[in-house]
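S1.2 Input.
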Amino acid sequence: MHEDFLLEGPGDARHVVVLAHGAGAPMDSPFMNRVSAGFASRGIRVARFEFAYMAKRRTEGRRGAPDREPALRARWKDVLAQLGGGPGVVIGGKSMGGRIASMVADEVGARGLVCFGYPFHPPGQPDRLRTAHLADLRTPALILQGTRDPFGTREDVAAYMLSPAIRIAWLEGGDHSFKPPARSGRTEAQNVEEAIAAAAGFVEGL
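S1.3 Output.
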């Protein structure tokens, strides 16, 4: 297997999920590790990869800005080609990784799409929507979203035109990483586990 990938879960799994990281953290961030381990523990094969700018951080030790959208989309398609193609696999990721996956899902014929914290708009800029392509998405999709996510709250998202192929599962009190306020009585670990369970159930039901 290509050295660029982190692989977990049984090699003969019925379901394969390919995940990309968010804008600021690598493919082996604590969040990505927890999600991947959660899928793998349920018998789902997971492949993780990095965009070029993040891989460059590892070799050069400098924090460069994310690649531009065309390069991010091209990287997703290249990764899927290396893994044997999009049909049959579920694609997605954390924040930006999931957003870019949503932009190529129909084109590559992905079996499904799962996004952990979709960045519907930049924080504090609700008019800068990243939703135009979501109105016509054909790929079955699940978005796991915290109700307090500054990139798109429950109130924000209720007003968007989204494809009927998209289902949203809300994590109560969660921010962009699903962390709730201390006073809520819930924990980040509970919300993350709830998200993983929902995502795994979605994948298994495809």
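S1.4 Remarks. Helices lie at 30-41, 52-60, 69-82, 96-108, 154-158, 188-205.
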